[in-house]
Amino acid sequence: MHEQLKLDNQICFRIYTAQRLLTQAYRPLLEPIGLTYPQYLVMLVLWEKDNQLVGNLCRRLMLDTNTITPLLQRMEKAGLVVRTHGIADGRQTLVSLTKKGRSIEEQAKDVPACLTQCWQGEEMPSLEAVQQFVATLDTMINMLKK
After folding, report:
1. DSSP element (H, E) containing 24
2. Strands laid side by side in the 81-85 sheet
3. What span, in angstroms and rounded, lies between the C-alpha atoms of 136 and 126?
4. Among residues 102, 124, 112, 133, which one has the least CA distance to residue 26?
5. Global pTM?
6. Which of 27, 48, 49 is nearest to 37 (CA)?
7. Would you write out the chain's pLDDT as a tens digit for each of its 146 residues?
8. Reported CATH class of domain 3-145
């Protein structure tokens, strides 16, 4: 067998596994506030800056329109966001938080801290190591976007 084809030598497998396990860890934290992990990501972007075009959300979340549109439809049915057509360009869709969408920000504020509590008792990497890991991931993401 070729060494480069061993599963243990694949960085993509480690990233995939970490992403899947991280999503699972978020589930019990997000269920009480009625969000899925992808919805949580959309809400994070909208809590930072409300009233955004779908295209901006796609760019920020690195998702295609055909991925985000059904997600936004479900969020609209849940009363979290409202979608309206742009005034200047009717082909554009603006996404805005509803009162309910804004109100759950307060409930969600503790989610990141609760997630790190899952790791208590484990040896946590230093802040510097985490920051370096984030920088490495950002570099990889930027290289792969090209």
Report:
1. helix 11-30
2. 52-53, 93-97, 81-85
3. 15
4. 112
5. 0.86
6. 27
7. 788 889 988 989 999 998 999 899 999 999 999 999 999 999 999 999 999 999 999 999 999 999 999 999 999 999 999 999 877 776 889 999 999 999 999 999 999 888 777 666 667 777 788 789 889 999 999 999 88
8. mainly alpha
Joined together, the tokens standing for residue 65 give: 């329109």
The residue behind tokens 């949580």 is: 40
Of the chain, the end-to-end C-alpha distance in Å amounts to 31
Kind plus residue range of the DSSP H or E element containing 84: strand 81-85
* Domain positions in the chain: 3-145
| DSSP 8-class letter at 36 | -
User: Scanning the structure block, which residue is given the tokens 């994070």?
Assistant: 44
Scored b (16 or more CB within 10 A) or e, 4-29 reads eeeeeeeeeeeeeeeeeeeeeebeeb
Q: Which residue has the tokens 């899952």?
A: 118
Query: Residue 85 pairs with which residues in a beta bridge?
Result: 93
